[in-house]
Every structure is written in structure tokens, then in C-alpha cells.
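FIELD: query
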Amino acid sequence: MTAEPPEPSAHPVPAERLRASDDDREAVVERLRDAAAEGRIDFDELDARLEQALTSKTYAELAELTADLPRPATPADRPPLVLKGGMSGASVGPGRWEVPGRVIAHGGVGGVKVDFSRVECRLAEVTVEAYGETSGVTVVIPDGWAADTSGMDPGVGGLKDKTTPDRLPGTPLVKLTGSGGMAGVIIRHPDRRERRKLRSNPPRG
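FIELD: result
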């Protein structure tokens, strides 16, 4: 006679009693160091909390160490970045910049360029709301990023999607919405000139 496998427990472990990982502990350590740099806790208290963080076993123990600290802002919490082409145009990038969860680009008379080629972004998705208007909007995403343009109205100027679907793990999906307007919207990877600049001055880690 074979033994029956044990039935799953009728009383699962509460979330706060689950075991914390090294990454969980490291995240709390970074948050505590930021709090000390902001003057929220003094350095003696920082040392004590760091020691506790590194020896904490559960989520509850870690949560206790940051319970009196404000919740840190995440990229998704940041207000939208709004770019208006105006008469002389507007752009962001190709240097490093803080990517919010949503970018709104109005091409206006001068046009707008949104260049993600040198950014570091941990968001799963970034929405770019683009309106081509008179002079258009160009969006540049790094190789390995992918775009979803299904929510875009091409308008009169149309939509040109020159990206590849080969998305690498850990990279954001750029969701393109809005309207092409009169001049249209382009989303692409870096062109030859931009690639030469990237090779001669690669992004630093």
C-alpha cells in the first residue's frame, strides 16, 4: 500500500511571515541609507537598523524597519513629462533622463523628438502619447526594447513603426497612443548616425 501525499495546509503562511530574500534585505538597506542622507534618521540609528536589516528573516521584520519612513516615489508615480514643439521644437535625450510612466508629446510647429537610447528604465511599460500635429513626433528606442502601436490613430500624417519585436528580458514595452495629425509619428531604433555616436560614447553603467 502506497502512502498518500500530504494534503496542502488549510492555513497558508501569512504574507508578512514569508521569508525575505537577499534582494529584499538589500532594498531595505538602500532605503535606510537614503533616509539617513535626507536627515530622517541619524547615523547611530542607521547603523542599528542596517544591522537588523541584514539579519532579518521575514517580510514583517523588514517592514518594521521602514514603517516610520515615507513611501519612496517610483518612476510610475512621477507626473507625466509634457513636451510641446512650439515654434522651435522640443526634445528630450539622447543623454540620460528620468523616465516617468507617461510621456506626452505635441509636435506643434517645430516638432518633437523623444530619445530613450541612453536611458536606464526599470518600468515594465512606458506610455508615449504622441500628437504629430504640424511637424510630427519622432520616438527613438534602444535595440532590445519593443513597441505596441495598436492604440495609435495614424491620422492624416500616418504612423511609421520601424521597430523590431525582439524585446529583451527586463526592458520596458513602449505603448504608443495619440494621433499622427498632419505630420505623423515615427517610432524607430537609432539610425546610422545615432549608432555611431553611441559607439563613440557608449552609455555608462
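FIELD: remark
Residues 16-66 form one domain.
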